Amino acid sequence: AEGAAPPANAPVFFLGGDNMSLVDIQFAPFLERMAASVLYYKGMQIRGGRDGGQFPWVEAWFRSMEATPSYAATRSDHFTNAHSLPPQIGGCYPDGDGPDLAPIQAEIDGSSWKLPLPAAEATSAYEPAVLGAGGVDDAAAAREAAFSLLSNHAAVVPFACRALGKKGMPPVRAEYADPNATPNENFVDYVDAALRAVAQSLLESPAAAEAGLVQGGEPAAAAEALAYLRDRVGVPRDMPHRSAQLLRAHLNHIIDALEKQA
pTM for this structure? Predict the structure, then answer.
């Protein structure tokens, strides 16, 4: 099928037709993880990127799935997939003879999580665009990120304080997982204040949140805790893709502001 171009204005599903089937649902998580992991660890690009990609039918299938609201709401992102896969299958290792992985891994690991974010519909060199039926409402996505942060603050604050506490024993293979870690409760108030600033940044404006940051305290420790949280936002476990992008970017904005104080 890759020898012929896919239809330009029609959905592409495994069994044909206008709607996804159980076959598409069965294959979706495997292809999604494959597209992220072989890119991150081997440099092989399955998804299109800016150049359209070498597998147009696969890309057309992904776009058809992403235009389906039920799939768009539950799709993951490359960062989550690339880092959640190794502990599940026993490890993933870079290909020493393959392409330069540095720019690929830098983008997937968050070099683009800066304000202002590119539009949700923009396709980067490696990460596919955030697509969905009816488009993406950034204001609504930001509110969802803030709601997740605020409604779970009693758990999120001590979780972030794990960055300042003791590592758990025994250690686990997942790079970003440490279920037995002990948070440092001496920094709870400082981290709580910093996360309130992140919520204000999402709901009001980054400038207002930065201006309202409390001077003094423990800015370096708070920045470290926010970075720990940023790297552990899972998609879609914690929130949808665009909400996670916005939360990570606003976390980085407040981290930068805190580091200026330190």
Answer: 0.89
